[in-house]
Request: fold
Amino acid sequence: MFAETDGSRKTIGDVDVLFHDGLYHLFHLVLPNHDFIAHAVSTDAINWRRVNNALFIGDPGSWDDLMLWTMHISPDPHKPGSWRMFYTGLSRRDQGKYQRLGMAVSDDLYRWKKTPVHWQDHRGPRDPERVKQAVRESRSQEADARHATFDAESCFPLEPDPKYYESSLDEGRHWISFRDPFYYHDGKAGWLLAAGRINTGPIVRRGCVALMKEVEPNRFVAQPPLHHPRLYDDIEVPNAICVDDDHYLIGSIREDAKIRYWHTKKIGDSWLSYHDNVLLAQGNYAGRVCRDDKGWLLWNFYSMDIGDRTAENLMPPPKRLVKNGEGMLRAVTFEGIDAYVREPVDSRCIHSLVDDAGPRVEYCRVDGGHLDLACDSGFQAFVFDETLDHFRFQAMLQMKGVGKCGLVFRADQETRDGYYLSLDMLKEVAQLRAWGTGEAGSGEHMMQFRPLQTGFWYSEIRTEAEVQLIVFGSYIELSINGRVVLSLADQTFSKGHLGVYLETAELRVSDIQLERLASPSQTDDHLASG
Reply:
């Protein structure tokens, strides 16, 4: 996991990752200040090392002197071996109510210079001459990671064209959405996407993917929206990718804090929706894509407090993006987790979590490579003997009847506190909860019950599911039939027993693989290891 230093009152924000020469480069916002864009590197996409920050808010009077928001880094198609960073800036001049897009360039991904802008500092026309002179002397004469020089011919910072988009503080919500740039080259032309809003229709239904065309190097001209679903307030952090001649548009939706996508065979045609266009469950946000030597990866930050996305954020391991046989885009487990697998755990050593079975009918039969489990009344869990902290569990579940089943993990033998993962095999719904016990004498507050995340899956045989559960530090990931259904972080419980639970059900658990994982070498609350 990747986060900010515990107690710093800072947290990771929107991320962008670029893979180059065997190294993953992470660029991310730092909340709540938004005063610089941080940079970290990794060889395995899981453990990261901070390097020098990439970009900073501009000098006083600049177009970006208040905050920096989401960025996108891509190779410069006009200068091989160089890179461009498109980023969002806010100015003090208009109290941050107007979002604009700028650009910085680099020859090595470490040292960045802001490109010239047509923005001028008009502050203090009545200042004493000595003050005006001090302002002039303080200004840098060369571009760097803080300062952009002036060029009246520059198209930057980019602003929304009133022909297509909200562009005035008198419109809509009285602040201008024009942020989260993403550069896309289709092999013939370059396009810049952004989170914008059309200038007609219901106020909270105007969110669209704004579009600009690169008509000559580093010069962009507004186009009609690439996509307007006519449903959302904003489509944040848009991405465009092509997989086997199918085009996909990925965006994050504030209304339900999910990452969604649309598809088309040809850009220019209508963007279509599948019945299930959710890539990652609620709490995963600001999804960004990058391509490495194995294909497309999806990155995001996860908010442990969904009510406040400016605190307690972490970046989980990425997900590999694949296209299934029906053309749907799916997130699957990142293969880099394999490098953390250690010794297998004996899954034949198993016992009941609850000792007082009473008159119930229960059994747990170990037969060759599978387990036959049953409990006809009430709750029972059959857990493996060893206490586990970090692990990967894989198995095929086959249920008889219409009862309940699921997994428990990091569970305490005596209190039975831990994580409870409900798997509704008939409705095909997965629900994860943290279930604990409060202090004695605290009344109804002794019952600590927190729903963490819900996800859905689809299968031809509803009573069967191939499950994979990864628990790695505070990161929890559930895949069913190869697709990531749950992806989240929680720090309530750190170790305990893993098992299968039943309520009025019979269950066969086969093809079991249970392996310990090495502990993440970086703790969740430490962004860099040195």
